[in-house]
Write a structure and sequence with these properties.
seven-stranded antiparallel β-sheet; about 725 residues; extended; double-stranded DNA binding; about 15% strand; alpha+beta
Length: about 725
Amino acid sequence: MAGKEATLVLLDVGASMYEPYKQAQGKKITRLELAVDCLGMMIQQKIFNYKNHEVGLVLFGTEEAEDGNTFYIQTLSTPDLEFYRNVTELINHDIPKIQGGDIFDALDKSVSTLDEYVKTKKIDKKIFVLTAGFGQTDYNEKKIAKLVKMIEKVDVKINFIALDFMNEYDVELDDPTKPENQEILNDRMLNAVYENQQQSINSRLTYYMVQELRNHMRIFPANIAFELYSQFHTKQMQARASFRGDFQINDETNIQVLIYKRCTEEKLPSLKKHSAIGDFSTEPSRNIVRNDTIHYNPEDPNMNPIERENIIKGYLYGRNLIPVDSIMEDKMKYQCPRSFQLLGFVDKSQIPRHYFMSSVDMVVSIDCEKAKKSLSSLIIALIATKKVAIARFVGREKGSPKLVVLLPHKSKSYSCFWMISLPTTEDIRHFQFAALRKSTPNQQIAVASLIDKMDLENLPNQSGEPEELLKMKYVANPTRQYFQQVVMHKAITRTDVIPPISPLILEYLHPEQRVYNYAQDAIQRVKNAFKFKVNEIKQQQDKKVFWKQLFDEQTTQQVQQQIQEEVVEINREEEEMVNMFAKQKLGFNDDIIQEIGSVDPISDFKKMITEKRVDQVDSALQQIQKVIISLVDQSIKGSFFPKALECLKEMRKACISEDETPVFNKFLFVLKDKYNQSMFWAQIVQQGITLISNIENQKSTVTAEEAQDFLNKEDNKHQQMVDQLQHEEEDLLADIE
């Protein structure tokens, strides 16, 4: 989970932001609309994923500002739906007279605001600037140098997003270690042509800042829409090792490694049902619908509940159903210790990509020089020999072993293994397909040319240079983004209308439009090489002949009438059956026990307690108390004492499970006051039926010591009765022997 973060968004709302966005590739969208869309996506991410982040919004270039430039529309706080609604309404404001705001004045004030707000707290500080660069400024290089020093002192990260502005800037060329690239970039920025002089001044000062603040400032020209949107789609995750242990090379060599998740499946957040009957509340914990599961035998017309401990798994062995309890199931499982063991090496070509069965994990050495050298030497050797490693991996104790492939990887900053699961013989399924017709050499050449033309990694751009069209770094999860878009739309509009997915997101999901245009010649070649024809699907005629077709028309009419009568009768019986089961589920049953009898009070009490169709807990507890007192009072020389004690024990169990401990404790005090000098209470003490303590149930106010002292503190007469009862039992046992 990401830490705390304070973000200020500086949005230029001058007249230049209401002009069409030139890099939209034929789409009608203004610069402000694009900026508001980006800001809205960022707020969505903060609301859904980052509960500890605070966001503030500053508009500059507005005539409503007191200082003529900056206007705070949202102070730093946790973003909510009201903030999101205000942002979406920015595009409806009147167009101001000034072209744009002072970028550097707004940046200066925002840095000071962040510094005053955060002070000494451990909070990451960020600033997003969205502008077209048309605003006038009084800043020169001297003032910019002071601003640079303040940014370094405050330690704030700045993301400068330019709309139709600084398009010549290329972050890949901005590398001090490569002077030739840096010189090319400097020439581009100095010779850049803009619409007016103010854009040129702002471009020069901004470029000066990014050269001085390489660790604190980044520029993202908006002509690369993917990079623009990636700022709001990236989800920060705290790296936690899923495995820490030895990588066993052989019996004598081990390397201590850490395994991290490189990529994992993105899952949508779970939704909870809230009752529409209850009073509306913004608290998430209010009005939650909870499911109550009842297990019963489907052959039981009364649907008597079955306790969960009485349910056991069963597995079919042929036609027989074999019961298997949890203890037997654990014994049958393959017990495997936690381990990571190298099995051998194979050529990289022998592991095709379609063998990969899982997400990718990253294997690195621990922070130890010896371990780093050992693992790095193995990685370099595998890369040099074009081989991969095969290993056996068990992530946790008693876990299932996996066959994994370790792909060596080395870059400038680190070296590691990419670990991916491989299939075993049992995982492979061989499917048989009909043989294809043999293709001609002309057809093979046409298809090979089409495949080469549709390569997404090397597609020429407008300048003819190859580029990767589908960069996964800038591709967000469309399912998650659309889910958040729908939730935010429904939360604000409160309608059932589902909005269409954003066209800017669909743009990077469908790069094939550019591919089709580039591969027109290859597509036409495939059409000429193959003869395509429409395959008409014929409707299959029913080959079955029903018995009614064999009779004449008169007989058919009689049979149809008889069938209709039978259908009516069947529908009537089904309706009666449905009504009967509906009554059972709704609780309108004649078999529901309303009263505890004296013949089998324990059975009646259990049924009333476990009855889920009607709440009878309070009634059952009151009745069982009366039954216990009645059994004790009607006993002749303690004849009904055992039965009363069993009822008392069952009542104690029910009070613990149903959180009714005060009822039992109060009733036990009543029994003690009433029967303290009788043999019945002596049997209660002998069997240790005491108060319910807070260890057995948290709702009890009685401690374990108080519960024990409740039975121990008795007078001498009562102790004599207990001793007499024990002597009688010993004499009875002696007689039996």
